[in-house]
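Structure in, sequence out. Go:
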């Protein structure tokens, strides 16, 4: 009888395993409780610390991979391997913005998957009052260089739609111009 229970338990464990899909799967085609997995290690070249300098501004990206992150949509929940970006912006040696100390559940730049050219698509929720929410595209050029394109959707917020809007205004500190900014692995 004990052997039967062990066999039955193993059957339940293996039959309950979620369906796996590759990263480039359209999320509309992913059923509830499925797992969108980085089957080909497409995210691995992006992991690490990256830096670019634009005039007197230095931008550091810390890209990490999180496996099996829960993704909640209105119509379903599934799990996915994702890349998360924490960053630091330094102007004239002074840190003006950083998310480096945020826990993984507080990171606001999260990958959505792969684009047709194998670049990684990210959604960013922006900063204070969601200023700067939009899309970021990262493309691996080689093992030490990334190309960055940031397309912010909101750049103007007023105190009418942001209750804690500072009198000095809110500024997007991540670079969004020029296009195709190159980051170097540190």
């Amino acid at each position: 009888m004990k052997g039967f229970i062990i066999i039955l338990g193993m059957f339940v464990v293996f039959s309950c395993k979620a369906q796996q899909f590759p990263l480039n799967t359209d999320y509309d085609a992913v059923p509830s409780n499925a797992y969108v997995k980085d089957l080909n290690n497409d995210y691995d070249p992006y992991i690490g610390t990256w830096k670019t300098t634009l005039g007197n501004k230095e931008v550091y990206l810390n890209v990490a991979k999180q496996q099996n992150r829960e993704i909640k949509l209105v119509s379903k929940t599934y799990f996915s391997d994702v890349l998360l970006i924490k960053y630091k912006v330094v102007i004239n040696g002074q840190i003006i913005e950083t998310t480096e100390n945020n826990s993984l559940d507080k990171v606001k730049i999260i990958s959505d998957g792969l684009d047709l050219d194998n670049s990684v698509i990210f959604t960013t929720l922006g900063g204070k009052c969601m200023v700067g929410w939009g899309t970021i595209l990262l493309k691996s050029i080689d093992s030490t260089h990334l190309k960055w394109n940031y397309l912010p959707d909101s750049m103007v917020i007023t105190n009418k739609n942001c209750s804690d809007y500072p009198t000095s205004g809110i500024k997007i500190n991540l670079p969004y111009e020029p296009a195709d900014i190159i980051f170097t692995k540190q």
